[in-house]
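Form 7-S
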Amino acid sequence: MGTAVIVVLAAGLGTRVGADGNKAYLPLAGRSMLAWSLATPAALPEVARTVLVYRRGERDVASATVERELKDTAVELVEGGDTRHGSELNVLRHLAPDIEAGAVDVVGIHDAARPLARPDMFTTAISLARSHGGALPALPIGQLATVDGPGLRSVAPMGRLVRVQTPQAFRARELLQAYRCAEHDGFEGTDTSSCVAHYTDIEVQTFPGCATNLKVTYARDLDVAERLLSDRDPAAAR
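Output:
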């Protein structure tokens, strides 16, 4: 069995949250959002390597942030692409020699904008990826409605609808092959699991997500994340 690698994506913008630049570097409870998202998986014995995917042109700020806020943590840096899919392809190219050699058997993908993911979410995703091929956390969706003229009409969903979160994890060989096929075809998925589903027969398992594992998207999300992180780690907040 090889080792697990967790990839943290931080190559986006912060337009909806109101940030002038990359929202991953916004401060939350004593450290950057990015540092929170990296620190949790990096501390797990199940995770052998942690990789940060930074936005093009931000290598210096990414390196400085890691060195300042995660002094004793080994974090590899990989330049991101123009899209989420492009960033994932870049990091898989970086990992390809070790994946092909069997040194890496699971790759997990996590959003820097989800600083509150619990340690057990990473360990569960890794374990299920090894046994089934892929795994992701999900929360059920309820109270759906359709627009009917000037009003709304409640509907019962066909099947079970869920909201997907990260971290997601997949067997590395199949994940790499899927992204190579996608590159050949010009296909771009909405997230990692959509590309895997399109090009492989992997059985992607869901496991219970967490309501507090919010994705910081809007300005109000910063206040919620700040409070939750402060409650979880008072020492860091001080």
